Amino acid sequence: MEEEKALRAALHLLKIRDRSIFELKSRLKRKKFPPAIIDKIIAKLLTQKLLDDEKFAKLWIDFRSSFRPKGERVLRLELQKFGLAQEIIDQALKGQSSQDVQFELAYKAALKKRAFKTLPPDEFHQKITGFLARRGFSWEVIQQVIAKMSKSEQLG
C-alpha cells in the first residue's frame, strides 16, 4: 500500500518534468516515505528507464539554453544542486563550454532586455554586464556581447 502510494507520487513528479535521482529521493523523503520504500521505487524507475541522470542533465541544459539562457558556471551549479555526479555534469556541458556557444546564449539573453536600450551608453553597459554576470557568463563573453550590441546600435 505504502509502496504503491510512493510510486504514484514519484510518477506524478516525473509527469510534471524529468528529475534527477537525488531530487526525486529528496521529494519523496519530504512526503515522509520510508527510505527502504524510496530506494525500491528509485530502483524500479531506473530499470524502467523513467529516471536517468544523464538524460536529465541534457534536458535541463537544453531547456535553459532555449528559454532562460545561462552561462556554463550557473548551469554547473544548478546541476550540482540536483545532486548529479561531476562526470555527468562535465559530459552534459561538453557542447556548452565553447566560447562561441556561450556568446550566442549571452547575446540571446541580452537581446531580451529591451528596456536597457533606452538607457545612456554607460548605464546600458553596466546593466547588461550585471545581468549577464548574474546568469554566469564570463567577462570575455560579456565584453563580446556589449561590443556587438554597441556596434549594432551605431549601425541601426
Which features would summarize this protein structure in a list?
156 residues, mainly alpha, Arc Repressor Mutant, subunit A, 74% helix, 0% strand, elongated, WH-like_DNA-bd_sf, RecX_HTH_1st
Description of the molecule:
InterPro entries: RecX_HTH_1st, RecX_HTH_2nd, RecX_HTH_3rd, Regulatory_RecX, WH-like_DNA-bd_sf. Its main location: cytoplasm. This is Regulatory protein RecX. Residues 52-93 form the RecX second three-helical domain. Pfam families: RecX_HTH1 (PF21982), RecX_HTH2 (PF02631), RecX_HTH3 (PF21981). With 156 residues, the protein is mainly α. The chain has 3 domains: 1-51, Arc Repressor Mutant, subunit A (Orthogonal Bundle), CATH 1.10.10; 53-96; 99-155, Arc Repressor Mutant, subunit A (Orthogonal Bundle). The protein has helices at residues 2-16, 21-30, 35-47, 53-67, 72-81, 86-93, 99-111, 121-134, 139-155. α1 packs across α3, α4 (53-67) crosses α6 and α8 packs antiparallel against α9. The longest helix has 17 residues, at 139-155. The mean pLDDT is 90.
